[in-house]
Fold this sequence. Notes:
By secondary structure, this protein is of the alpha/beta class. The protein folds into four domains: 3-216 and 361-393, Rossmann fold (3-Layer(aba) Sandwich), CATH 3.40.50; 227-349, SecA, preprotein cross-linking domain (Pre-protein croslinking domain of SecA); 401-621, Rossmann fold (3-Layer(aba) Sandwich), CATH 3.40.50.300; 632-809, Orthogonal Bundle (Helical scaffold and wing domains of SecA), CATH 1.10.3060. A hairpin with a 6-residue loop joins β10 and β11 (325-326). α3 (53-72) crosses α7, α4 (78-88) runs parallel beside α6 (106-113) and α24 packs antiparallel against α29 (731-760). The N and C termini lie far apart (107 Å).
Amino acid sequence: MDFSSLYTRVRSQSALNRFTADAKRISEGESSLTSLPAEELKARFLALRDLPEPKRTVPGFALAREAARRALGLRPFDVQLIGGLALLQGKLAEMRTGEGKTLTLVAPAALLALQGKGVHVVTANSYLARRDAELMRPVFEALGLSVAFIETSQTSAAKREAYAADVTYGVGFEFGFDYLRDNMVSDAGDKVQRPLSFAIVDEVDSVLIDEARTPLIISGSGDSQDAIVRALNLTARQLKSGVDYVVDPKERNATLTERGYDEAEASLAKQGIIAGQGELYAAHNLHIARRLHSAVRAHGVYRLDRDYVVSAGEVVLVDQGTGRKMPGRRLEDGLHEAIEAKEGLEIHAGSVTRATITYQSFFGLYERLAGLTGTALTEAEEFTEFYGLETVVVPTNRPVARILKEDLVYLGKSAKFVAVADEIVRRQASGQPVLAGCASVRDAEVLSRLLESKGVVHEVLTAKHLEREAHIIAQAGRPGAVTVATNMAGRGTDIILGGEKPSEGDFTDPAAYAHGKAQWESARAAVLAAGGLFVLGTERSGIRRVDNQLAGRSGRQGDPGEVQFFLSLEDELLRVFGQSRQLKVVAKLIDGAGGVLSGKTIAKLVTTAQRSLEGQGFEARRNVMKYDSSMSEQRKAVYALRDSLLADGVMEYCEAAVDAAVANWANVRLGVHDMPEQWDLPALKRELEADFNIQPGLVGWVHSEDLGRDEVVERIRAAVQARLAANPLDTAARRRLVLRVLTDLWTEHLTALDELRQAVSLKGATGQNPLFQFHNDAFALFKSFEEALCAEISRQLLSSALQEEREAKSADADEQARKAARVAVELEQRWVKRNEPCPCGSGKRFKHCHGKLR
């Protein structure tokens, strides 16, 4: 064990000791609450608002426990109190599968909600958000608190109402996208979220590690390049893997060979995309070269039903660690469009990024963050470094009775799946339920076809059937049930031995309920006698945590269970990350052992490969975070500016922006020295008119008054501000104008940052530090963005003011023409005396108005 792991375990044990003592104190006062009237219980809990936070904890947990007992008939165990205490302190609680994490987070969420800022409970998917909110609603309401959930289909008004609740459940990406959308509104009243205060993340590893691989991006339509994308797809389809390009599965990349370059250029020239050989990497064709790289990756690296599925004519990404679909996510750098072309789908127009944030940056915005999961210790270092979350390992309520059997390894996948199917048939015959975990949708379907050929009745749970997963997984503990699933499918739903336990509320007839309950108890007894749930892994994941989560589906709450993994040397983990010399030795051993092998050699081989892959993933996420630090600070600055503009700071900002624009203009046009003789005064005069719509007496000032640079700049500034003040736009108009300019330039800036990152990645090969170069250049880009923002706002403000002045003059001229017409008509009808009121309606005497013209 390394020092970091030892330190984590010591810290975890120290915190656990404190929380255990607090849990004992909570239990000591429990008996006095059982006879408390419901309204009194609610009043006591709400009265805790008046106490400092440390003094709320023990009485608050005791009241929440009593509320759960009354509302749900569930009394939280002491280990659930310990987990909740860890969450309240902003820590990560590791609690095994089946230990009741959903109920554990209620007490800390309720206590945090007393601060009136709102608590976000983040779940792994939308089904769990809705289910858990409704399931725990009676407990929160018994404590006098409101609860709601958010989902993608809701209107802004519905979301605003949900966020106003004391506790709001939802999916991580939905909270993140709402944050981004709130920072794109033009009116503060259109925002849906309150300031981010408290978040408790259920299945925290799924949300903060697995989901965090892809940033949240809100895109707008860019230029369509449908013809180019389809031509590149045809070219990539013609290229041969291993000959025209080389695939690096570790990096998920594909690189053209020299022959590949020639073949690609010939194909593109034939299709008229480039002029001819040698043109692909010409400066004007670099965008085509980048898209060709994406097309080759789409064909050589990305696989249907492994990396993505096609649903309703759309490419939907699949998380490799969890097997879950990620709707709404798109790959960058033209890769998503390349996959659409590969699958013969409609190609969506290239997009431009309007707003983006990484999970690390988003969850770092919360005042307090906490989380819980069944497997955290293997990623404890990452949780601490990225999110400041210390891990506390919570003991189980009952001893774990799960049996872990040695891995079996076969030479090829075909032999492995035949053995898997045979094992499932044997287990089912004994009445033991089986959960078979597969690494991909494709593997799940291969196994399903094998089972069908053997007449095995089973359920299949993959990323294609997310909406059914909770129901299927809840019944996976029935006698002889066989469920084939991607590794993480159904997470958040317990597999109860005997199947889903009947609820009295589901029956109108007490006798029917009693019969259903008796049947369930009989089924449960049969499963217990058969050895509990058998979890069969058909492949080791590249992440130990995912394997532990799959294994954790068996043996919940002290129940019996068994776990075993079936592997092959063709599995991706061993093929890509295993050491070739070891693999050759193992292959010979398998041959000598009759086609299958187990033991310490296999365990060591798997562990070494997993640690290699985990380290690579950790470094990749750390690298994303390092690059994101510049973006994060810039985003905070821009969003703070937007908030100021939406409040009441727009008039002051406009004045400051104009002053800054004049100063920047002067620095560029006049330099920094008092050297008027070097100024091109006629050119400067033209530029002032073009940039600021003013015509100051620049030439006269310099020649007649002998003014220096600073005096000239001050007079220009005063002239610009006078122009703005003389023709003021109202506050609302200025706000709309400034926000429009800010949005457009921020979008351009995000594109520039993305291009910068792609460019600096090439500098590593030249010996330069790409990260250092990125931060330097990103800072310079942001300074340019700020200057461009001030200049464009000034130009548009002054253009608007000038336009308003022109419109006013035009309106005045029209009015004068109308008055003159009225006078002319009157004069045609009679003689107007000089001292009469003028017929134009001005109120003046005729001789002093239109009479003067006669």
